[in-house]
Structure formats: C-alpha cells, structure tokens
Amino acid sequence: xxxxxxxxxxxxxxxxxxxxxxxxxxxxxxxxxxxxxxxxxxxxxxxxxxxxxxxxxxxxxxxxxxxxxxxxxxxxxxxxxxxxxxxxxxxxxxxxxxxxxxxxxxxxxxxxxxxxxxxxxxxxxxxxxxxxxxxxxxxxxxxxxxxxxxxxxxxxxxxxxxxxxxxxxxxxxxxxxxxxxxxxxxxxxxxxxxxxxxxxxxxxxxxxxxxxxxxxxxxxxxxxxxxxxxxxxxxxxxxxxxxxxx
Length: 246
Ligand code: NDP
Description:
Blueprint: E1 6-9, H1 15-26, E2 30-35, H2 39-51, E3 55-60, H3 66-80, E4 85-88, H4 103-131, E5 134-139, H5 143-146, H6 152-172, E6 177-184, H7 190-193, H8 197-205, H9 215-226, E7 237-240
Parallel strand pairs: 1-2, 1-4, 2-3, 4-5, 5-6, 6-7
NADPH dihydro-nicotinamide-adenine-dinucleotide phosphate (NDP) binds at residues 10-11, 13-17, 34-38, 41, 62-64, 89-92, 112, 139, 141, 184, 186-187, 189.
C-alpha cells in the first residue's frame, strides 16, 4: 500500500516507534528509523525490518535541535528523493508533582515532545507540498486529554499537540496533506513490564477492556491514518486506550 513512499519515524528505535516502523515497512514504505542516543536499538529495528523483507535505514538526530532536524531531513531528501510520511513519535517524560518540578523538567519535555514535532513537521512540509501528498501523525497520549497528577509538563505538551494537529491540518489540507494524532492509553512497554502485579491490576481496573494495549495496537491506528483508507480524515486524534477515556 505504501510502495514508493518514504517514511520517517522519530524515536523509531524502541517501543511504540519500533512497532510503527515495522508496520509501515510491512506496508511497503522505505522507513527511516530515527534515534537520539541508542544506535544499537535503532539497528535492531532496521534488522527486524530487513529480515521480514522490508526497507529501512537508521538516522541519528535530536528532534529538539532545529539544525540537526534540518540537516537530517535534507540528507533523507537527497538520498531517498522524497519525504511522504512523518510520524512524530519521539517523546520523553520527566514526571513530578508541580510544586517540586524543576523548570528544566518543564523545558525538556515541552521542547522534545512539542517543539520537536513542530521542527520535524516544518522540515517535512516543503517536500510534501511539492509532491501534493503527505501524511503526518503525531503520537499524543491519553493524559493530554484527561490530565494526570505528576505529569503537568507531559500532559501540557501532549495537549499542545492537539492544537498543533488541528492548526497544521487546516493549513495544509488543500495540498492533500493530512495531519492527525494517535493518543495511546496504557501500552505494554519496558516501563509497564517493570510494574508490580498489584500496580498492573490497579491500572487494568480503570480500563473498560481490562487489559493494557500493545505497541502494535498503536501501529495499527497509524497504519489506517497513513493509508488510502484514511485519506479523508484530517485534524483528528484517534484514541487507542481500551475505553479508559472517552
Ligand atoms: P520509549 O521511551 O520506549 O522510546 C522513546 C523513543 O524516542 C526512543 O526511540 C528514543 O531514542 C526516542 N527519543 C527520545 N528523545 C528523543 C529526541 N530528543 N530526539 C529523537 N529521538 C528521541 O517510548 P515509548 O515507546 O513508550 O513512547 C513513544 C511515544 O508514545 C511517546 O511520544 C510517548 O509519549 C507516547 N506514549 C507512550 C505510552 C506508553 O504507554 N508507552 C502511552 C501514551 C503515549 P533512543 O532509543 O535513541 O533513546
């Protein structure tokens, strides 16, 4: 379905980003797997894609650094000829109650999770506009909609992505570029694996479907939005959370 398309997945090396990278490659896209600090993980993702017959390359850049983003997107454009799909997935947390939160914890999370999406989308815009085709998906979070004590920086950044998604969608819709969000709830990751059984049971009790989601559940929502089936959907956020927030 995505034969001939070039995709960039920020933070594609691990977790949800890895599942998205694998899914887009399985759909036929050439996937640039971005990472910032762990080339080993990015290379593992590349190998997994290639082992199943897909096409991938890894690329290091910090989404929060405008110059690095510009340089990386320029290189991808030179090497691959186009940038058709951008998944703004890279994200960090610096949790803590507001009264004790350091200003730098606010800045780091807002800069990576929100400004990073802006910098990457801006860099992808020109080639997408030229081609009159593009798909941008911003990975948000349920807490950007519900709020969460101890995550004021993260929830603010994710809520900001919602306004970003709608505004950008309006600006570029006439160029056949869609901009959407996917907001995961609790997803099985290294972090949730490390939780006690009691903590996991408590989380499940808050989810109508009574189970955690998987990175593949999130990748499936992304796959729909970038596919031809999703061509008339823009400015939306698709919630993937087992019903915990409606
Ligand atoms: P992980 O912590 O497993 O992976 C984060 C990825 O982002 C890594 O690939 C990491 O690269 C990359 N990254 C971090 N900072 C930067 C940066 N400055 N520039 C480029 N890449 C960077 O994250 P998850 O898979 O858990 O989460 C992925 C997305 O999903 C995030 O946006 C997160 O907020 C969102 N989300 C996750 C949920 C969950 O339950 N896990 C729930 C809701 C939303 P490297 O390996 O090099 O460090």
